[in-house]
Amino acid sequence: MSITKKVFGTDKKSKKAIYEYHIRNKNGMCAKILNYGGIIRELWVPDKDGKRADVVLGHDDLMPYYENPGYLGAAVGPNANRIGGAKFMIDGVEYRIPANENGNNLHSDNEDGYHVRVFDVEEGENNIKLYLKDEDGNMGFPGNKKLEITYTVTEENELRLDYHFTSDRRTLLNPTNHSYFNLRGQDDNSIEDHVLWLKASAYTPVATGSIPTGEVAPVEGTPMDFTEPKRIGAEIGADFEQLRLGGGYDHNWVLDDMDGQLRLVAKVAAPGTSRVMKVFTTLPGLQFYAGNFIGEQDGKAGAAYHNRCGLALETQFFPDSIHKENFPDAVFGPERQYRSTTVYQFCNE
Fold this sequence. Notes:
Layout: E1 2-10, E2 17-24, E3 30-34, E4 40-46, E5 52-54, H1 63-67, E6 75-76, E7 82-83, E8 87-90, E9 93-96, E10 105-106, E11 120-123, E12 127-134, E13 145-153, E14 158-167, E15 171-172, E16 176-177, E17 195-198, E18 202-204, E19 217-218, E20 230-231, H2 241-246, E21 250-254, E22 263-269, E23 275-281, E24 285-289, E25 297-298, E26 304-305, E27 312-316, E28 331-332, E29 338-348
Antiparallel strand pairs: 1-2, 2-3, 3-4, 4-5, 6-16, 7-10, 8-9, 11-12, 12-13, 13-14, 14-29, 15-28, 17-20, 17-22, 18-19, 18-21, 21-24, 22-23, 23-29, 24-27, 25-26
């Protein structure tokens, strides 16, 4: 196990140095993490023959990450996903946040969200801890917040993400990581033939604007059913209202039997490679996004990205939970610290 780092650039706003940290294990797995946005820039994973591929989408230099409209690889916060009307109330006080997507809020803020912030770093033996302080009122969110994300690579070919937030006021906290995966490699053409299993017998339907209606609907008998492994492209174009609204899969699945313990919730495989990814989390929801609107752009090492060349599995509390009493509570503060763990484990089958 080893950790090395190199200078990756200089932040255009803060003028702080940006470093890339390489965390390797003895099996050839290597995660390359930026302290800018907590971005997972590369993730090298071996197949059964020891041949490695970089399985996450990203960029070769810092400049594209200043915009990063698809949030490639980034730590998103303080709140991931959508908030209807770009406002919410806590303890009778209304908070207004950026209306950055059709009058709603998506991923907190384009200009000051955690995906474009520079983190402080502490190195461990097989992990790095990224630290950030976020002041009361920043982006409209209450509370002086302290965030710690630990990225760990294990000898079991796991990339483990541990989150810990504290806040001196009750506030909305729902961070996630927004990596896009392609198990054949980041320069592959499509994820529609990837096979996905989700431990989820229900999902949260959305209305126009991708804001949940508040319903928790069964997946059985619909194209949203991944309780048995299914090719992603098999029904992505089905004549089904939810798929029309999202341009394909871009929904929150309600994970079965979640009680705050770390549990296996998803599994992905792909023809043409022995690599398999398993997702474990302590959180109640998972946003499966099939990359329906990845814009055409230059990727790493000459790759050309486009729609559905990568998939995201974002562990989370449910979108717009602040407005839905029946959704799990994502309000945290002095009496309730935020902690969660998500693990991306790679094996060969």
